[in-house]
Amino acid sequence: MTSPSPPSTASAAAESIHRSLSELTSYSSTDSFDSPRRFTAFASRLQFVLNHHNFLESDSLPPALQTALKGIASDLSRAVETVSSYRQRSKIFVLINCKSLSSSLQQHSSAIASWLALIESSLSDDLPDLRKKISDLSFDMKQSHFTVTENEERVHRTLQREGEGRQTSKAVQSAIILDLARCLGIDSDNYSELINQVKLLKTDLTNSTSVSARRILVSLEKILDNWSVVPGISTLSVDRDFEEEAHISPFKNFLCPLTKEVMKEPVVLESSQTYERTAIEYWFERCLDDGRDPTCPVTGQVLESLVLKPNICLAGAIEEWVNRNIEIQMKGAVEQLSKESVDVEGIERVLDVVYKISEEHPLNRFRVRNAGVIVMILKLLKNCSNSIGTVLRGKVLMALLSMSKDEESKKIMLDEGITRLAIHSLIGSSETEREYAVKLLLEFSSDESYCARIASEKGALVLLSSMAGNLEHPALANLAEEILTRMEGAEDSVKHLAAAGRFEPLLSRLREGPDDIKIEMASIIGGMTLTNNSKEQIARQCAQTLVKLLSKPEGRTSSLQALNNLSGLDENVTILLDCAVLPALVSVLLQDEGASPEWKELAASIIANIVSNPGRWELASIDRKGSLLQSGSVVFNLVRLLFVASSQCQAFILRILYGMASSPQAAESVALHIQNTGDGIKTIIMFLEYPEVEHRNYAFKLTRLLTERFGHDIAQELKQSDKLSLFKEKLLDNESAENEKSDAACILGNLPLSEEEVKTIIEASFVKWIVMTLKKQQRISNGRASRPTSSMAEGLLGLLLHFTRHLDQETVSVVKEHQLMTIFCEQFNFPAKPRVRQLAAIGLKNLSEAGRSFAVADSEPPPPQGFCASLVFMCGRRGSPEPSTCPIHNAPCENSSQLCLLKSNCIRPLADLLHDEETFVQIAAIEALSTLVSDMSNGYKRAMDELEKQGVILAVIELFTEVRPGVLQERALWMIERALRVDGPAHKFSLNQSLVRALVEAFKNGNANAKRHAQDALTNLKQISGVSGKASSQSRPRT
User: Fold this and answer.
1) Which alpha helices (H) appear in 860-966, and where do they start and end?
2) Which residues, including other chains, have CB under 8 Å from residue 644's CB and lie 6 or more apart?
3) What count of Cα atoms within 13 Å lies in the side-chain half-sphere of residue 311?
4) FRET label pair with 818: which of 88, 190, 921, 976, CA 20 to 30 Å apart?
5) pLDDT in tens, 411-446
6) CB neighbour list of residue 580: distance below 8 Å, 6 or more residues apart
7) Which residues belong to any copy of the U-box domain (predicted)?
């Protein structure tokens, strides 16, 4: 509100004073606060003085009096505003602002006193009575103090704290209402009047911008909402009607004035009022926090002593009343839970009562237990879990959690299978159900034996681990993590925790525990099914410990089992090798005569896992001398052990030998040691017909590798033992495994077979089977090459190579019938191993050479007979080829001959193969192409023209200019020299500087053959003068 402006004239001031005084004194009897009453008393005295002596009506007043009147008029106007706030605003508003309002009246009273003193000094001496009255009033107003009462001060301070938005307990809220009601002169039970006062405050604050005042309003509204509820001990509503005495209502003195609930621990103050201990203690704390003396909330009495004396008599009466009501409630609960049909609402009320009794009257938990309610609730959860829904399951778990604080109830829950029920609720659809399930498990996990019980439940640790890692629900995650942490301290839980992926308890015991614990932990690792990540984690932390355990006979079995489990991961091989595991394993397998068969099997298995990863173990020492695993003595002992080892150990030894023979670094020495080990090859071959699949599998694999190096020796051994036909039988056996078939094909393809043996083994029907199998595999793979598929293709192509090396008129018909040249060429489109492409190129070479041989034979006419012989001798034979002849063979070639690379469209695929990444494939391709230019007879130019048209010559030149000196360069150089004998290519490539430089380099640094071919090629290019680096003959100076 805007303050009124001071009057401009004395008459206006006088009028304003009369108006203000009339307003102040008119309602003075209704003022309920002391400050406005006192100020209006001063106003009445001032009005009496001014009205009695009428000197304000004088027409001419001294300037001092005029000034004083104007000042009094202004301050009175402002005082009227303040007093109006007391009279017109709500009492709560006045209490909120009582200090500022009192201060305002104090200020105006002092100001008016000063103006009155000015008037008194300006009056003449002939008015002594007036001067005396004005002087007394001035003095009284000057000396007066407008303050708030102690009660108003307390309420004001409390309300100001509420304006700060502080959280308050229910007890403190009740005390605030009692204080406020007493200050307002209202009975604390007069709820409607309290509500009315708050509504008036809300009206007063309609246009207020004070945040604190609005907070006070909101706080009071909430407090009164709570105050309106009349609480008491909860009663169970069941379907049957109780008699009048079925529930005993509490006496009024059972209820705490602050909480309005039945007291649990009643105490008496010095004011003789009884309260709940915790409630009154909260009020005392609030008073002290507010900087005020603690008071009795009901009487408002300031307490000199805060001693709380137990009200023993009242406590006994309340206890008896509570016990009686609990018995009634349990009777109703049993009746409700015994119903055949599930009444969700009734069960919910039962659970609420059980929870409240357990929380508010813990000493009466035994009554709930003895009534059988715990067992009935558990059976409900077991039998009706789906029908009661997730919300009710959450309430069941909440009630059980509260009751689990009773040891006897806890035992009942355990016996009834609470663990499994709680674990099942870990995947409940509501967060509340999951929360109370994990809290219940946490409550029970304080017992180490119960931790083991949790761990043994199927899926428990997996669910808890998943929950612990779920950051979307951090509260649940922390609870689950706490359970798992407790379980880590229980010995019986270690194995289960490890199975769930929590290995730290196990690993810490393995690293730091005594030997018996280490052995036990190693045994657990050895028997577990581990993920790759788990294997790596364990190996990195404990591999060294496990290796050290190998030196202790009592720990050897467990350690070997654990190492065997860990060695199954390729990434762990390096870790194990760094821990020097090989010396201990080799000692157990080959040197320790007292080692049990189980130890030898485990040691052999670990070594087999290690050597299956080439490039890591080859340089690892197996003894102090620095011997290597691939040494002759080790290979010798392994082969010898095959005769005496157990069946399983034999399989692992075959794996070891195969692994070592597969290593690029060790393959040659291992194969040589096997060959030199007496009956080494014979021993390996013996296992080709072993009944156990694993033995045969690795025997075939190892034999395949050995045939690549010692094919002749193995062929001799197979022939002596009459097992050469074994491989063909294996291939044709539909019951045999694909990998064995693949190895059998490769072995037979690698063996050196005589012409007679080829005809015997690889007859026409077998060739048909080979071709059909190749087509089938190419069709099934559909562009994807698996290892067994490419190995089978490699072996089958090797068999076809045997067949194509010894062709005659009879076998050529088989070649044509099955289109072997096409079959070989199709392998280039198959994304197989480079070895397959190499064999296919060699097959084309064989067929191309055979085709040239048959073409030469067919082109030789029979010797002339009789009269024509002389004519032929005289005229000679026709030298120019027929236009219909093949430009490659200079003879007619049928499209289906399967002996001509041109007619079978194989030249361009071979030329493309010159760009292969593998040198041996390039060599095979260029050797196949070389068969096209081996004949320098008539028609050679036509052949070269065709090769240039197919892009072969350019591809060979590009290859020659890029490769290093060696066999490939020499083969390419030979073919280039042949091509440059023809004028067309020689002229075309004479200016190819890259070719010339490469030829010069070969001429300078190549071997004898390379130099000769390079010289001839340069001669054909007419570049021979550039070889020595000297000028040509045309530019040479004359001598």
Assistant:
1) 867-875, 907-913, 919-930, 940-949, 952-962
2) none
3) 22
4) 921
5) 999 888 888 888 888 888 888 889 999 999 998 888
6) 547
7) 249-328
CA distance 838 to 744: 19
- pLDDT tens string 58-89: 556 778 888 888 898 899 999 999 988 888 88
Kindly calculate the radius of gyration of the chain based on its CA atoms and give it in whole angstroms: 56
**Token pair recorded at residue 759:** 């005809």
Residue 644 scores a pLDDT above 60: yes
Q: Dump strand ranges (E) for 492-644.
A: none
Which residues sit opposite 310 in a β-bridge? 267
List 295's β-bridge partners, or say none. 302
Asked if the model's pLDDT at residue 1026 lies above 90, the reply is no
% of the chain surpassing 90 pLDDT: 30
Distance between CA atoms of residues 973 and 449, nearest Å: 84
Q: Are 546 and 522 in contact (CB under 8 A)?
A: yes
Read off the tokens for 587: 């000692």
Give me the half-sphere count of Cα atoms (radius 13 Å) on the Cβ side of residue 22: 7
DSSP 587: I
CB 6 within 8 A of CB 73: yes
Angle at 1015 between CA 1012 and CA 1018, to 5 degrees: 150
Q: Is the dihedral of CA 689, 691, 693, 694 positive or negative?
A: negative
211 Cβ contact partners less than 8 Å away, ≥ 6 residues apart: 163
CATH of domain 316-500: 1.25.10.10
Cα–Cα distance, 694 to 692 (Å, whole number): 6
Task: Tell me the C-alpha distance between 888 and 852, whole Å.
Answer: 9
pLDDT in tens, 827-878: 887 666 888 999 999 999 999 888 888 766 655 555 555 444 443 333 344 4
CA distances 762 to 670, 798, 811, 847, Å, are 32, 11, 11, 16
Helix (H, G, I), strand (E, B) or coil at 690: coil
Report the alpha-carbon angle 1018-1023-1026, nearest 5.
110
Return the exposure string of 58-89: e unless at least 16 CB atoms fall within 10 Å of the residue's CB, then b.
eeebeeebbbbbbbbbbbbbbbbebbebbbeb
DSSP characters over 368-410: HHHTTHHHHHHHHHHHSHHHHHHHHHHHHHHHHHHHTTSHHHH
Distance CA 459, CA 475 (A): 21
Domain boundaries, the chain: 10-148, 316-500
Distance CA 941, CA 881 (A): 12
> pTM of the predicted model, to two decimals?
0.65
Specify whether the CB–CB gap between 930 and 975 falls below 8 A: yes
Buried b (16+ CB within 10 A) or exposed e, 345-380: ebbebbbbbbbbbbeebeebbebbbebebbbbbbeb
